[in-house]
Design goal:
Elements lengths: L1 H22 L5 H4 L1 E8 L6 H10 L6 E2 L2 E9 L4 H13 L5 E4 L3 H14 L3 E3 L17 E3 L4 H14 L4 E7 L2 H16 L3 E8 L7 H9 L4 E5 L6 H9 L5 E4 L6 H7 L7 E4 L15 H15 L6 H20 L8 H12 L4 E3 L2 E3 L15 E6 L2 E4 L2
Parallel strand pairs: 1-3, 1-4, 4-5, 5-6, 7-8, 7-9, 9-10
Antiparallel strand pairs: 2-3, 11-14, 12-13, 14-15
Helix pairs in contact: 3-12, 4-5, 6-7, 9-10, 12-13
Length: about 400
């Protein structure tokens, strides 16, 4: 009985000591030892071809940064915005993470932005829309992203079309935030180059037929068609257009830059032009390209783990988020310890101060007005030739 009383008293004293230390801002050593990174990805659902390589890439992230061990907690949101928000709240409120990476798609990421602001936790998205980070106001102050803005890629497509004499284009995109964002940005880029959009159609990621949309596109007789989708669902309109005999030029967005898309689209996608991050054609880049070294490292490590030809640009977006954290965490540790609001704020500030940081998709320079951070070094033009990605000079 005496031993039980002593043991209980000792436990109570330790608990009181921990409370006192926390209240005074001096955390116990165990609480200081680890950085926690929460990750929510679309590893299942319509965007699984994006989320799976991102989930695979978690194993390639560093286990120690700035002298602190790093724990990665990974959840699947099944390509559902509601699940993404639930995951984010759980990661922050229950798992006490210092930063959240995710999600894989624009709609999920947009739904998470409010939570990042409410709980004042930095978030790095792996989705493309500029709306995720713009404008950098109180709502978006905690949010960053690694994929290229759709505006950056849309202007590359418009430039290529203009250089090849294209004056009319048909547009078909996802009937969600991704497709809508792309239409808005491409419309501006096309107008600036004197290109007229003669048809605008939409389709859902889960559709199994787009016959009606394809017939409307073809009746407008455009010289080229831009398909604004991501992952394997983007093959559906192109295959339907080929089947109906459309002979114009085909363009896709950087949302299709993975091996699964090539597998599903097959020969129907030969000759297609798209903008992509440098990682897609890493071995074809000149040695002077700042992204070549980190891109080749990622390709080597990913394929060593998952097999030759398995690498996808989507996984590299998560890898780039890891590269940003490798720079930001040591800076944040100079002023605060993990597991505290002060550390989350310091980490946000350090991410915003990122300057000239080479990564697989370009060179990042963030600022108080730019939480995407990529310039024209973050894109190359690529053609699909014989089911291979070929860099266009």
């Amino acid at each position: 009985m005496t031993f039980i009383k002593r043991n209980r008293a000792s436990t109570i004293r330790r608990a009181i000591a921990a409370v006192v230390l926390t209240a005074t801002g001096v955390l116990p050593v165990a609480a200081e030892a680890q950085v926690k990174v929460g990750i929510t990805l679309s590893a299942t659902g319509p965007a699984a071809s994006l989320g799976i390589p991102q989930k695979n890439s978690v194993a390639l992230l560093p286990k120690t940064i700035g002298g602190k061990s790093v724990e990665y907690i990974v959840l699947d949101d099944a390509t559902d915005p509601t699940n993404a928000v639930k995951n984010m709240r759980k990661l922050i409120s229950e798992d006490m993470v210092d930063v959240v990476l995710g999600s894989s798609v624009t709609s999920n990421s947009l739904a998470m932005v409010d939570v990042a602001a409410e709980l004042q936790t930095p978030m790095i998205s792996m989705a493309a829309s500029a709306k995720i980070v713009e404008p950098v106001d109180a709502k978006h102050a905690w949010v960053f992203k690694t994929p290229q803005n759709d505006a950056l890629m849309a202007s590359a497509i418009a430039d290529h079309m203009a250089a090849h004499g294209i004056k009319t284009v048909g547009f078909i995109g996802f009937s969600d935030a991704y497709g809508q964002g792309w239409y808005a940005e491409f419309s501006k880029a096309a107008e600036a180059k004197g290109i007229k959009i003669v048809a605008n159609e939409g389709f859902a990621r889960t559709d199994t037929s787009v016959t009606g949309q394809v017939l409307k596109l073809m009746s407008a007789n455009p010289e080229a068609i831009l398909i604004a989708g991501a992952g394997t669902p983007s093959a559906l309109p192109q295959k339907a257009l080929k089947e109906r005999g459309y002979k114009g030029k085909y363009y896709q967005t950087h949302g299709v830059a993975n091996a699964d898309f090539l597998r599903v689209c097959g020969a129907d996608c030969n000759g297609t032009i798209l903008p992509a991050g440098p990682i897609l054609v890493a071995a074809q880049l000149p040695d002077s390209n700042a992204s070549k070294a980190p891109a080749l490292t990622y390709v080597k490590d990913y394929e060593a783990a998952y097999g030759a030809g398995s690498v996808a640009t989507f996984g590299a977006h998560l890898y780039d988020a890891g590269l940003l954290l490798q720079k930001a965490i040591p800076e944040a540790l100079k002023t605060a310890q993990p597991g505290t609001p002060a550390f989350r704020k310091a980490l946000r500030d350090a991410l915003e101060a990122t300057s000239n940081a080479p990564a697989t998709h370009g060179v990042f320079t963030m600022s108080k007005t730019d939480h995407a951070g990529l310039d024209q070094r973050g894109r190359v033009m690529v053609m699909i030739d014989n089911n291979q990605w070929v860099l266009q000079k």
